[in-house]
Write a structure and sequence with these properties.
CATH superfamily of the largest domain: DD-peptidase/beta-lactamase superfamily
Enzyme class: hydrolase
Oligomer: single chain
Number of domains: 2
Order of helices and strands: HEEEHHHHHEEEHHEEEEEEHEEEEEEEE
Keywords: Hydrolase
Protein name: Serine hydrolase domain-containing protein
GO molecular function: hydrolase activity
Shape: globular
Helix content: 10-25%
InterPro entries: AmpC-like, Beta-lactam-related, Beta-lactam/transpept-like, DUF7586
Distance between the termini: 59 Å
Strand order of the largest sheet: 2-1-12-11-10-9-8-7
CATH class of the largest domain: Alpha Beta
């Protein structure tokens, strides 16, 4: 994926959308602004690591004649901040500075949160209380970590029992990042994430052109300014401000264009569901990975995060497989609908991605292990697809893809056999005898007696 030399989203070389698509997207955004009575709303769509469309409707103060919003207007992103903190934590893990199974008190002592693991804090599975014990932290200036920890904040549920969204847990993770680097958490984010990605308009307080945080009266067309402040120790839960252009670079990152900031394998790990956002009586479609929300909607996987603070609403979502993404920012305390997913769906529907052409680029050496195999009486077909060996149908039963790890050795990539070893066992003449997959034997014929089937094969054979 292409970015500019500074790492910012590349708009100059971005493919232009069809004018009719742009008009349709503007209509969707303008309709949302009016129907939800948003003072202003700005949005952007990312494809191929590039900002391919952006637009804004409304004024920064919500009044006729006010300054109009655009893609360079700052809004507070709220809890999308947590994804930056999570990436900073995972960079520490990748550097060998911590393990996700570490308890918090191995790195941050002096609180009642210490028995939760870092992985549980990242995935809201530590049972930590949702909010602070003091005044509404989102509307009042914050204190430091010692004051927050001594308030005291603690656990509502046994760690690991269930999903329980916690802003306090991310305050703890911000403190962990700060102590590990010996500097403020945002300085770490700015130095290690924002600067390499060219995100120069992402800050902890409004800077330059910025929207006023506003509440809209539920029964009248009236506005109330919301307070803006430094949240102190709670800042890692929702402090950051950004523009559509900056946040679109983070959406490109979330879509796989991670540059030198994070390995793609680590990003994929962060998207693995850890805790399910379960509401009794309702089917669940949302889970939390390591700092990211993940969705499984009609067979498509998405990752991202929502955000809200008094006066602001925000959303970021990317389709994991394609990298298509959307960001939305508004200066209203409540009321925004599903405009982000709607814009992304419109892009996919009106301008679908063209599949890459197929080319013959296979490896003939795998021909001797493709074809029909039998696990007992069950029939499986092995195929060579790109660099992978595919046994069965991934997503169905125990179907899985396998990546090569050495001569005649493979490892499972998905499904039941994720991480499990597959070994090609050869006969004395060098031809494949059977596959040994996590102790299971796959033979060319059902229960082939020549393939050393564990437990043996009845000498009388099939009857």
């Amino acid at each position: 994926m292409s970015t500019s030399p500074a790492g910012a989203v590349d708009t100059a070389s971005a493919p232009a959308l069809d004018p009719s698509t742009a008009r349709h997207l503007h209509h969707l955004l303008a309709t949302e602004q009016r129907a939800s009575r948003l003072p202003s709303v700005a949005a952007g769509l990312v494809r191929g690591g590039r900002l391919v469309w952006s637009d804004a409707v409304g004024t920064l103060d919500g009044r006729v004649g006010g300054e109009t919003a655009d893609a360079d207007t700052q809004y507070r992103m709220g809890s999308i901040t947590k994804t930056f903190v999570a990436v900073a934590v995972m960079r520490l893990r990748d550097a060998g500075r911590l393990d996700l199974s570490d308890h918090l008190d191995e790195h941050v002592q002096g609180s009642q949160l210490g028995r939760a693991t870092i992985a549980q804090l990242l995935s809201h599975g530590g049972g930590i209380q949702a909010e602070t014990n003091g005044p509404w932290w989102e509307r009042t200036p914050g204190d430091d970590w010692d004051a927050l920890a001594g308030s005291p904040v603690g656990q509502r549920f046994r760690a690991g029992r269930r999903f329980h969204y916690t802003n306090v847990g991310f305050a703890a993770l911000g403190e962990l990042v700060a102590r590990a680097h010996g500097t403020d958490w945002f300085e770490v984010v700015r130095r290690d994430l924002l600067e390499p990605l060219g995100m120069t308009r992402t800050t902890t307080r409004p800077a330059g052109k910025a929207a006023q945080g506003l509440a809209v009266h539920p029964f009248a067309d009236l506005l109330l300014p919301e307070p803006e402040h430094d949240a102190g120790a709670m800042a890692p839960a929702g402090q950051l401000w950004a523009t559509v252009e900056d946040l679109s670079r983070w959406a490109a990152f979330a879509g796989g264009d991670t540059g030198d900031v994070l390995s793609k394998d680590t990003l994929d790990e962060m998207y693995e569901p850890h805790t399910v956002a379960d509401n009794p009586g309702l089917p669940w479609t949302v889970a939390h990975g390591l700092g990211w929300q993940v969705w499984n909607l009609e067979g498509t996987r998405y990752a991202g995060h929502g955000g809200s603070m008094p006066g602001f609403l925000a959303g970021l979502r990317v389709a994991v497989e394609s990298g298509d993404g959307v960001v939305v920012l508004a200066n209203s305390t409540a009321g925004m609908g599903a405009i982000g997913p709607d814009l992304l769906a419109a892009l996919v529907e009106r301008e679908p991605l063209t599949p890459e052409p197929w080319h013959a680029a296979g490896d003939a050496s795998v021909l001797e292990i493709v074809g029909t195999w039998h696990w007992g009486p069950s029939v499986s077909v092995a195929k060579a697809v790109g660099e992978h060996l595919v046994l069965g149908e991934p997503g169905q039963g125990r179907g899985s893809r396998f990546a090569p790890t050495g001569d005649d050795e493979w490892v499972g990539l998905d499904g039941y056999y994720t991480g499990e070893p597959l070994r090609v066992v050869r006969a004395s003449d060098g031809t494949p005898s059977h596959l040994d997959l996590a102790s299971f034997r796959f033979t060319r014929t059902p229960y082939d007696p020549a393939a050393d089937v564990p437990g043996g094969v009845d000498e009388a054979g099939w009857r």
